């Protein structure tokens, strides 16, 4: 059983990242080669754990944002390759750390690294990848890019701590939750998009445009993920539907249903999210309450709102295939709930 949400914004229903993939394909080949070379280590477990996650089929959207924004701003050097690889290493490191904190069993449709090698190895290999990411940032030779990406790393860590503090607490507000995902998810999207124009020496309004595009795309992306946990598929999520519920994660659909529900319903949510005793029957009841209070649809509506802000951020830029591909990415992120 699932909650199927259909949104219709008057756009093509077959939104896709393929145009962006095609336009950045050559550069992504170089990024992938660099990633492989930088996961090497004399410590045998490090390349094994890194390869397990890197090879597991992620779309690598974040490094593609770096490549596309650099190209769109006319950059002609090699620094965008290095920074795109560092962005992917930052993302991979946060996934390794997240799975330990969240005690996740699955990642992108396969066993998480912590289930194969244990929590300690996952944390330490994540630290190794972060170290490599910062080395590559230095190699790129841009202090401004280093500042943006290092700040993003700090903000992501702050978001993790904020989420941990709010874990299983139904007193979390919507504003609190948006602050968490702005830090945890959107900060890296934003930094990945901004470092391209930094390398190209673009003026501040262009940098600001890409930063706004990235952060709002990241918010939309995460909110759709929240909706998919209750109405998507294992293929969409790379994990089991309902995992957020079973792990007691307070996401926006839950917050909306909780706030809008009766006292009896709120008592159910407190019991389900603040304990580890939830089962399939509880999940089905939760999904019913989410539907009753329009929580999934309204989460998608909020994601659509942030997607529109992302699109508007790029509006002043001249028309081009790359610009259109970045706009298509917004539609793709939201259309995953169809």
* Euclidean distance between termini CA atoms: 15 Å
Overall average pLDDT: 90
Top-tier CATH class = Mainly Alpha
Number of helices: 17
Q: What order do the helices and strands follow?
A: HHHHHEEHHHHHHHHHHHH
Q: Percent of residues in beta strands?
A: under 5%
The CATH level-2 architecture is identified as: Orthogonal Bundle
Radius of gyration using CA atoms only: 20 Å
| Strand arrangement, major sheet | 1-2
Structural class estimated from helices and strands = mainly alpha
Q: What's the structural domain tally?
A: 1
CATH topology: Farnesyl Diphosphate Synthase
CATH superfamily: Farnesyl Diphosphate Synthase
Helix content: over 70%
Unreliable residue stretches: 1-13
Short note summarizing the structure:
Mean pLDDT is 90; it is low at 1-13. 47% of the residues are buried.
What structural keywords apply?
338 residues, mainly alpha, Farnesyl Diphosphate Synthase, two-stranded antiparallel ribbon, globular, disordered N terminus
Describe this structure in words.
The protein is an all-alpha fold and 338 residues long. It has one domain (18-332): Orthogonal Bundle (Farnesyl Diphosphate Synthase). The protein has 17 helices and two strands. The chain has a two-stranded antiparallel ribbon. Helix 4 (61-72) crosses helix 9 (174-199), helix 7 (119-140) runs antiparallel to helix 8 (143-166) and helix 10 runs antiparallel to helix 16. The radius of gyration is 20 Å and the shape is globular.
Describe the protein's topology.
Layout: H1 18-23, H2 25-38, H3 45-54, H4 61-72, H5 79-102, E1 106-107, E2 110-111, H6 113-117, H7 119-140, H8 143-166, H9 174-199, H10 204-231, H11 234-237, H12 243-246, H13 252-260, H14 263-273, H15 280-292, H16 295-313, H17 321-335
Antiparallel strand pairs: 1-2
